[in-house]
């Protein structure tokens, strides 16, 4: 069974609801999960699977609660070889920078050498008003490979 750190970027709570829904499913399947709503890079263990779930705010911006984590990645550019991750981006396609925060973080993690397990999931609030259900269906497709 896998050990999973879920790092959340949220303003209004939708990304946290997605995180809680997936954590419950993963725990039920026997995985060990912890959710970080104020993630600090140093607190994360590279041997654990990293699941990033982030909304976008402002104009393609990373939510404030995830900015220190993103800044640590960008400023210190740690070598992240050996890390494995997946990422869910919540956004709204009526904004110019759709899923800007998730796309930025995904790019950053890949530049740093982390290995993405499967393509980023993007959830558009104009299409899906229950992002946790979309995320759960996505998870069901690959949770057995963890
Ligand atoms: C003030 C504001 C700015 C936003 N800016 C963007 C944006 O630039 N790009 C995008 O894709 N979505 C944007 N969104 C949409 C949110 O990312 C989306 O509604 C998301 O589901 C919110 O998740 P949360 O409840 O976890 O904060 C914005 C929403 C608000 C309220």
TrEMBL record:
InterPro entries: Flavdoxin-like, Flavodoxin/NO_synth, Flavoprotein-like_sf. Residues 4-143 form the Flavodoxin-like domain. Pfam families: Flavodoxin_1. Keywords: Electron transport, Flavoprotein, FMN, Transport. This is Flavodoxin. The lineage of its organism: Bacteria, Pseudomonadati, Pseudomonadota, Gammaproteobacteria, Aeromonadales. Its cofactor is FMN. PROSITE patterns: FLAVODOXIN_LIKE.
